[in-house]
Amino acid sequence: MISVDDKLKEIGKYIPQPDDDMLVCRCEEVTKGEIRQAVHAGMFTIEEIRRFLRCGMGLCQGQTCGKLVKGIVARELKVSPAELEPAVSRAPMRPMEMEILGRDGGDK
Amino acid sequence: MKKAADVIIIGGGINGCAAAYYLAKRGVKDVIVLEAAKSIGHGGSSRNGGGVRQSGRDPRELPYAMYAVKHMWPTLSEELGVDVEYCQAGNLRLGKTEAHLEKLNRLAQNARNAGVDVRMIDAKEVKEINPYLSDEIIGASWCPTDGHANPMLTTLAYYKRAVELGVSFVKDAPVKAIQKVKGKARKVITADGTVFEGETMILAAGYESREIARTVGIDIPMTRYFEEALVTEMQPPMFDQMLGTADADFYGHQAKHGSFVFGSECGLEEAADMPLTDTRTSSLTMSAGCRAIMGYIPALKDAKIVRSWGGWLDMCIDEVPVISPVEEVPGLILACAFTGHGFGTAPSVGLMLSQMVVGEETVVDISALRYNRFKADR
Amino acid sequence: MKRYDLIVIGAGPAGLSAAIEAAKCGMKPVVFDENAKPGGQLFKQIHKFFGSKEHRAKIRGFKIGDDLLKEAEEYGVEVVLNATVIGLYPEKEVTVKIGDEVKHFKGDAILAATGASENMVTFKGWTKPGVIGAGAAQTMMNLHHVMPGQRVLMLGTGNVGLVVSYQLLQAGCEVAALVDAAPRVGGYGVHASKVSRCGVPFYLSHTIMEAEGDEYVTGVTIAEVDDKFQFIPGTEKHFDVDTICVAVGLSPMSQLLAQAGCKMLDTPGGYIPECDEFGQTSIDGIFAAGDVSSIEEASSAMIEGRIAGVSIAAAAGYLTEEERKEQCGALESALGSLRKGMFAPENRGKILKETEEGIEISTNLLAKGYVAEDEITRYPGFVKKAGVHPVMECTQNIPCNPCQDACPKGCITIGENITSLPVVDVEKDCIGCGMCVASCSGQAIFLIDEEYEEGYASVTMPYEFLPLPEKGDTGTALDRSGKEVCLAEVVSVKSAKAFDHTNLLTIKVPKDMADKARFFQR
Questions:
Q1: Any domain includes B36
Q2: Helix A4-11 vs helix A32-40: angle between axes, to the nearest 10 degrees?
Q3: Which of A57, C90, C209, C305 is least enclosed by beta carbons within 10 angstroms?
């Protein structure tokens, strides 16, 4: 059970950091500061962060930034990154053209 | 952790979050929202096509669907301080055969009878509205006041704003039962045995509402249904309308950031039997969806699909939700069984739930959605 | 739908090994790989592997790849290339993009051997062109013969960072520095030493502050960090570089297994499937082997693959339980010996003070990348005697022993325990053949003759740079830290098939430089 009130109190107010403008998710151009602020707005899971900011939702599907985002969120929440569930793995594992995906023999 | 409040809301989906927000906005800030998952909006609230539509709706839902479109959606981003990507650019429901047009015409007629501006347009007008569509389309129904928004952002925006206004949220708190005390719904018990107490409770937990309502002797006749969606990589801006088809083989729109989001089916969904916690997509639906989409929007054939996802719908036996206080269980208000079209109405539903809590008359009459409307029909 | 006995995803070392074992038992496996060429990362590995004979030690990675492909062909393993598996479903169904369509296949068993991908770190300017993964640098150099840059800074001193730094030098790049936020070199000491003696400085407890440049990388500033990894003001150092290579670890590419619903574990080493001892995941019939189940060396991946292949064959009735036990037993002991020593999984994160022999660890090696002159004398491979003899600068317990079989005279002993430090027997007569020098995957063996000529000693070193110096060339001798110590003359250059491209370069240096001179610079 996670009380949002208690957690927000525990982690304190958002304090700007000098590298808040650093890009973390390059596909969707999400910065470290945006991720940190989202945590302080109550987004505590990778699922919520992704849905709120779109980080990890681009072409690489979080292959590059997944671990980085997790690290930033964990640090902000004062927990170990292992306590945060990673994003759900979703097919297709590689971006694939509709025309090719549609050709799977299913309509024959 | 706070365990007692004036209002307990079971379900941190869009309806629960919206209700919490409208309660807090009117000054009822002693509210606890219990969400079963670790994430707000984990269920259908984030797993839907983002349609904000009036066309194609049952007359019983139309009044509050229209209220939301007219009075709430246009200012929602500003009100919540988060861009929820609301776009009111109309809804095209496409047909390729005479049979399709007949069906669309029937639906349009129903909508017009209920006061929604939906009209039939020919192939030429379809092309004028959306030049990317297939030449095989011979006509469509057109509702210019329909639109779409970002469901994930809208849900989280209600949540964020409610938190800011002082509402208490508890995540990872699956509710097992509601208990009456001295004839009134009073206690909410979670899976780990924690007891929350409130004067009033709103049950807005999707399909899971059924099990919870049963613990106070109320059974809502609903089933569950699994649907999938696919998302393309970002595309240059192409069109703003929400699209659907007479055959209902896909629906969707281009989101603000450029990705297209399309819902689709492969035809085997009725037989899905995984547990509710399982939202894995099937090996067939994505491909079937691509074929359906390319049949209407050939311009997208080279767009790459980056992911697919699925979610459970709480289907009511008569296909409209239950939004109503429960007289037999004073203090309990139900808001469930949205049947796959609860996103677009969430602002007005949240507002009306807040009105029910304080005993105020709702902005529109929704007595047709009462919990005890279900009768034997033979 | 076409059904296979076994579908292997990934034609790298683990996947191919598994398919080969399964095919040996009579199965008809298929291997899908999204790349145009099989072998995974093996064909980028131009260095000699560690281990013992059974692990194919002292053989270069790409050669092992060739052999694996030959073996796969011999046993009739079907390898389908340019075949991207885009989905894995619990009923052991895969969707595979082949050509311009998607095909559905089912397997009685599925083995995911999908490997790993490189981690990234963020620093100011990390998205600029010129910041690349070390694996990408390897691909450019070793597969496509393209130099990643002229002047490179390497971040990360794990084995990947060290090995790729050396390969960058071999390709003709200048390596400006090796940098690591950790206070100690992460990879094998022998890999560090061979880079260090080429003159590459190590900056431990340092990390990148900023990648500079408007359009692309033109420089980099690093600075020292404290024990909380915060920059210490005033410690900034600038390098003019055009490339920054990042080697900060790998993450298992386990997404397919997660998608199928296998039970996953979030570990410091990445998101991995929970597997039993045979590599089976929580879903019956779905297996994992190689880096996808835990990041290790290719040698381990190949054995893991073989164990999975044998287990899958047994589960499908192609082997009896006794046969399985016998085969798995041998493989498990081979795998066990690779997981011994200072770098064993159970020692990860530990600070060891002594070797297994009770000898104090070289602190200089961990802090600066080379063993200091006053430290090297305490190891059993460092001996002095009249005439030519080996000096073995192998100071860490790693699972590797080709040197002991290389010496025809039995001068070198490692013994039963594969991780023991090599001991030089001064009673036995070294004939100066250099087989030991070429056999050492860590390039840590030198032949020294302190009485080469009046006042001069000779130092024979492994040399893997082109163009090869010639007899009579003169240049400078560098010490273990890469510092110039004296003038040197090349007196012999030996190349032989048995040396497998490790040339033996002998230089003549003043006698008092015999223990110092470890590299030759023209």
A1: yes
A2: 130
A3: C90
Q: Using CA atoms, how far apart are residues C218 and B284, in angstroms rounded to an integer?
A: 49
* Beta-carbon contacts of residue C315 (< 8 Å; ≥ 6 apart): C109, C285
Indicate whether B176 and B201 sit together in one domain. Answer: yes
Handedness of CA B125, B130, B134, B137 (dihedral sign): negative
Whether B183 and B270 map to the same domain: the answer is no
Is B280 within 8 Å of C90 when comparing Cβ atoms?
yes
Count Cβ neighbours within 10 Å for each residue of C482-496 and write b for 16 or more, e otherwise: beebeebbbbebbee
Number of domains making up chain B: 2
Q: Which CA distances in Å does A66 have to B37, C87, C123?
A: 21, 20, 16
Residue B274 lies in a domain: yes
Best of B39, B163, B170, B284 to disrupt the A interface (most A CBs within 10 Å) is B39
Task: Indicate which of A93, A97, A98, A104 best probes the interface with C, i.e. most C CBs within 10 Å of its own CB.
Answer: A93
CATH number for B243: 3.30.9.10
- CB contacts, 8 Å: C259 with chain B: 280
Cβ–Cβ of B287/A90 closer than 8 Å? no
Among C104, C254, C256, select the one facing A104 at the smallest CB separation: C104
Phi–psi pair at C55, nearest 5 degrees: -95, 5
List CB contacts (< 8 A) between C101 and chain B: none
Residue B130 included in any domain: yes
| Tens digits of pLDDT across chain C (522 residues) | 899 999 999 999 999 999 999 999 999 999 999 999 999 999 999 999 999 988 889 999 999 999 999 999 999 999 999 999 999 998 999 999 999 999 999 999 999 999 999 999 999 999 999 999 999 999 999 999 999 999 999 999 999 999 999 999 999 999 999 999 999 999 999 999 999 999 999 999 999 999 999 999 999 999 999 999 999 999 999 999 999 999 999 999 999 999 999 999 999 889 999 999 889 999 999 999 999 999 999 999 999 999 999 999 999 999 999 999 999 999 999 999 999 999 998 898 889 999 999 999 999 999 999 999 999 999 999 999 999 999 999 999 999 999 999 999 999 999 999 999 999 999 999 999 999 999 999 999 999 999 999 999 999 999 999 999 999 999 999 999 999 999 999 999 999 999 999 999 999 999 999 999 999 998
- Which domain-ending residue is among B316, B339, B357? B316
d(CA B323, CA B325): 7
C474 touches chain A (CB under 8 A): no
Report CB contact under 8 Å: B280, C259: yes
Cβ–Cβ of C104/B282 closer than 8 Å? no
Phi–psi pair at C268, nearest 5 degrees: -60, -25
For residues B211 and B174, membership in a common domain is answered with yes
Residues 78-107 of A with CB under 8 A from B: 85, 88, 90-92, 95-99, 101-104, 106-107
* Interface residue of A9, A51, A107 to substitute, partner B, most B CBs within 10 Å: A51
Q: Is residue C104 within 8 angstroms of chain B, CB to CB?
A: yes
B135 plus B241 within the same structural domain: yes
B294 in a domain, yes or no?
A: yes
Q: Based on the domain organization, do B217 and B326 belong to the same domain?
A: yes
Does B163 lie at the interface with A, CB-CB under 8 angstroms? Answer: yes
Cα–Cα dist C194/C480, whole Å: 8
CB contacts, 8 Å: A4 with chain B: 163, 168-171
Domain that holds residue B262: 89-144+223-316
* pTM, full prediction: 0.94
Residue C424 forms contact with A (CB below 8 Å): no
